[in-house]
Here is the input.
Amino acid sequence: MLETGKKVLCIEDDRETAALIAEELAERGYDVHLAHDGREGFAAILKVQPDLVLSDISMPVMSGFELLEQLTALGPRFRNMPFVFLTALTDRDNELKGRQRGADDYVTKPIDFDRLDAIITARLAGIARNELWSKQVDLNEREVETLTWAARGKTSAEIAQILGLSKRTVDFHIDNAREKLGAATRVEAAIKAATTRLIEP
Here is the structure.
């Protein structure tokens, strides 16, 4: 069961549609915040720090695509916040464009609220599952440090030089981290650690 009260920011320039979305989602237990153009939405993301963003694509001042690009440019801070486009643009090119910019999902208007709720629930549950999993894996400081450098493409010899350790010690810590993560290779270990926010490459 998904915990209620999760913060959802809805960025929609049509105020009637925005009010309808807010009402529907509030009835389903979400804490809904509204913004009416991309720039206002961007400011709201920084202020509210929502658990998930629903954004229209065609908006005045700043489009949904431009908003997502600006958000992505901020780096790791918002990397794990689900971003879902709401749009009347049903053609494949726009959907591909949204996904290429990092959108997690794409919902066309008129909105099917049961479908939207299922998407929000699944996206938030995915984040919760990652957080739970990361709490169960206890990497020590050296393991985090060596795995972070490995994720940045450094070899054991390069990591040893950076951290002032021997190559054997670096390999030891990376192997320990790999075993704790249940990964077959250091690349798989780095990917698992990054996607579950144990490291920030």
Q: What stands out?
A: The beta strands are 7-11, 31-35, 52-56, 83-87, 105-108. The chain has a mean pLDDT of 86. DSSP finds nine helices and five strands in the chain.
